[in-house]
Design goal:
- This protein is α/β, with parallel strands linked by helices.
- The chain has one domain.
- It is 56% helix and 9% strand.
- A four-stranded mixed β-sheet has the order 1-4-3-2, covered by helices on one side.
- It comes from Oceaniferula marina.
- This is Type II secretion system protein GspE N-terminal domain-containing protein.
Length: 207
C-alpha cells in the first residue's frame, strides 16, 4: 500500500469515527423569560418610594431587586415590601407591623388612598376571570396582587400590601381591555394586612 492509499484509508477512518454534525446535540437556547414592563416599572416605583420615605437605602434596594428578580425568574411571586421587611425583622408581630407601616406610607402617597380591608381575603377567588385572562392571572401571581372580586368584568377589585403594585396592575388591566375594544372596567384597590395577604395569595395562587 503506497502513501496515497494510506492517506485515503486514514481519512476514511477519521470520517467514520467523527460524530455527524447533524446528530450533535443542539446548543441550549433556554433563556430566562423577560420581566414584563409593567412589573419592572412597578418595582422601580415601589423602590423609589421606599427610599423617599427613608424605609430603604440604595444598597437595600439593590438587594431587594435581586431577590424579587430571582423569584420572578422562577415563576414565583414576590413583593419588594415583603422582601424589605423580611430583611429587617424576624417572623411575628414585628414583621406584620413593618409591612403595615410601609404599606400605609406608600398608600398615602397615591392620589386616591386605598382603604385597608382585611376581610377581602375571605372572598372566593374569581377563577372565571383568571381563566379568561391568563396573562393577567400571571401578572397577579408574580406581583402577588390577587383579584378580590370581578363582577362581569366591569367592576374589579385588587388587593395587596403594595399599593403601587396594585395601581400598576389596575392600569395594565384597563389597557388590555382597551386594546381588545371591550368595556373599561371600574377598578378599585384595597390594602391588606400581611397575614390576610399571605392567606389570599395562597388561596388564589396555590402553585
Amino acid at each position: 500500500m503506497n502513501d496515497q492509499d494510506h492517506k485515503v484509508q486514514d481519512a476514511a477512518t477519521l470520517a467514520a469515527s467523527s460524530p455527524d454534525e447533524s446528530e450533535a446535540p443542539a446548543p441550549s437556547t433556554m433563556t430566562a423569560e423577560p420581566v414584563p414592563m409593567v412589573m419592572e416599572l412597578a418595582l422601580m416605583q415601589t423602590l423609589t418610594m421606599l427610599q423617599q420615605f427613608d424605609l430603604a437605602d440604595p444598597e437595600a434596594c439593590t438587594q431587594i431587586t435581586a431577590k424579587v428578580h430571582a423569584k420572578w425568574s422562577q415563576g414565583l411571586g414576590a413583593d419588594p415590601i415583603d422582601c424589605l421587611t423580611r430583611m429587617r425583622a424576624a417572623e411575628g408581630a414585628m414583621l406584620d407591623s413593618m409591612v403595615e407601616m410601609a404599606s400605609m406610607k406608600l398608600a398615602r402617597s397615591l392620589p386616591e388612598v386605598p382603604a385597608r380591608v382585611p376581610f377581602a381575603s375571605r372572598l372566593i377567588p374569581p377563577n372565571g376571570f383568571y381563566d379568561k385572562l391568563p396573562e393577567i392571572h400571571r401578572l397577579c401571581k408574580l406581583m402577588m396582587v390577587p383579584v378580590a372580586f370581578a363582577e362581569d368584568f366591569d367592576v374589579i377589585g385588587l388587593a395587596s400590601i403594595n399599593p403601587y403594585f396594585a395601581d400598576s396592575l389596575a392600569a395594565e388591566i384597563k389597557e388590555q381591555f382597551k386594546k381588545e375594544g371591550g368595556i373599561q372596567p371600574i377598578i378599585s384597590i384595597v390594602r391588606l394586612d400581611r397575614i390576610s395577604w399571605m392567606k389570599m395569595c395562597e388561596k388564589h395562587f396555590p402553585s
